[in-house]
Amino acid sequence: MPKNDASSSPDPFTSSQTTAAAAAADPEKFPTSFQALYIRPPSPFPEVDAFVASSAAQYRLDLTTSDRPMKAALTEYLGASGPGRVVRAVFVGTRRTDPHGAALSHFDETDDDWPRFMRIHPVIDWHYREVWRFIRALEIPYCPLYDKGYTSLGGTDDTHPNPALKRDERKFGDGGQGFRPAYELMEDEEERLGRDR
């Protein structure tokens, strides 16, 4: 795996203003697309695949999809003939409460036995509820599985709605099948309760 070496949230408006100013100052230098790599799990959710495709179109992503394990996918993508051969840094959504996230900083190189690049963790110190506050405040589209009680997405074979979000069937009369949306979860430690691994 990559290196596993006071919570505050960055101001999203400062970042977007800076980006807009850079584009206005020299539109020729501002990218028209961004490279992205989607590493699919062995049993992907169709909803996740559809969301990735719509996000690629919406955000003008030059998307590469790989069905290989993470290390192999990155090695191929970043290799001499791969589409990411000029990539030197990668934005990652890892937070401190994620597996292997506790010792990370905002910038970490990969371990020696991984393809070389700098991992940038812009939300490393955010809490789960802060991520959702940001998404909802800016009305950023998200995968519809999050509205069905999923809080951490893997594949269909190891991911289930989060039991901490199960509705009380006595209150809702739905036979216990309903789950509250992911943004109602408040505790970081409960985020991965719907994952088998």
UniProtKB/TrEMBL annotation:
**Does this UniProt record's set of keywords contain ATP-binding?**
yes
**SUPFAM superfamilies (alphabetical):** Adenine nucleotide alpha hydrolases-like
Phosphoadenosine phosphosulphate reductase domain ranges (all copies): 88-161
Instruction: Identify the pathway.
Output: Cofactor biosynthesis; FAD biosynthesis; FAD from FMN: step 1/1
Query: Mind listing the UniProt keywords for this protein, alphabetically?
Result: ATP-binding, FAD, Flavoprotein, FMN, Nucleotide-binding, Nucleotidyltransferase, Transferase
Q: What is its EC number?
A: 2.7.7.2
Q: State the reactions this protein catalyses.
A: FMN + ATP + H(+) = FAD + diphosphate
* Record region (Disordered): 1-27, 153-197
Regions of biased composition (Polar residues) lie at 1-19
Give GO terms for biological process. FAD biosynthetic process
Listed name of the protein: FAD synthase
Molecular function via GO: ATP binding; FMN adenylyltransferase activity
Record's compositionally biased regions (Basic and acidic residues)? 157-173
InterPro entries, per the entry: PAPS_reduct_dom, Rossmann-like_a/b/a_fold
